[in-house]
Amino acid sequence: KDTDIMAGVTFMEKTFLMVKPDGVQRELIGEIVSRFEKKGFQLIGAKLMNISNELASEHYGEHKERPFFGELVEFITSGPVFAMVWQGENVIATARQMMGSTNPADAAPGTIRGDFGVTVGKNIIHGSDSPESAKREIGLFFNDSELIEYSKLSNNWIY
Ligand code: UDP
């Protein structure tokens, strides 16, 4: 059984989630961490950090040509963010569902953006949208040594 747990830990899907500066200022770090913990996902890395302009431009590179890019970089570098790596079965898609639609006006009640956000420019949380972006974003924000592999007993009651 131990080997089952370790196999699960080692090969489980990972995603990059980040409480944006508005979420940090609005004291939502604990609330957001709690939602993913209670869901049954496992936190394997986390840090409070300031994002440089370079990292912001790299992270949001796909939006370089969009009209909101300048404001987006300015916003995401305006104060500390809480960067996290979570793992679990289907965690990339499930976390996106738990976050809700990009525009909080369209986000369902019960989702993070639906419960706490009002405008698209201040939508509380970022989450990777695919396995490719998860791998890329985890690599941008975390060194291997900052990701902690450990077995969690409750996984026996989740999987
Ligand atoms: N954004 C914005 N204005 C827009 C669209 C997006 O300010 O019209 C911001 C918003 O903070 C969003 C981020 O750009 O979270 C990235 O956009 P994306 O479409 O990737 O949404 P997400 O993956 O964050 O839901």
UniProtKB/TrEMBL annotation:
It is found in: Cytoplasm. Its EC number is 2.7.4.6. ATP binds at K20, F68, R96, T102, R113, N123. The active site is at H126 (pros-phosphohistidine intermediate). InterPro entries: NDK-like_dom (IPR034907), NDK-like_dom_sf (IPR036850), Nucleoside_diP_kinase (IPR001564), Nucleoside_diP_kinase_AS (IPR023005). Its cofactor is Mg(2+). It catalyses: a 2'-deoxyribonucleoside 5'-diphosphate + ATP = a 2'-deoxyribonucleoside 5'-triphosphate + ADP; a ribonucleoside 5'-diphosphate + ATP = a ribonucleoside 5'-triphosphate + ADP. Its main location: cytoplasm. Keywords: ATP-binding, Cytoplasm, Kinase, Magnesium, Metal-binding, Nucleotide metabolism, Nucleotide-binding, Phosphoprotein, Transferase. Residues 12-149 form the Nucleoside diphosphate kinase-like domain. The modification Phosphothreonine is found at T102. SMART domains: NDK. Belongs to the NDK family. Major role in the synthesis of nucleoside triphosphates other than ATP. The ATP gamma phosphate is transferred to the NDP beta phosphate via a ping-pong mechanism, using a phosphorylated active-site intermediate. NCBIfam families: PRK00668.1. Homotetramer. This is Nucleoside diphosphate kinase. The gene is ndk.
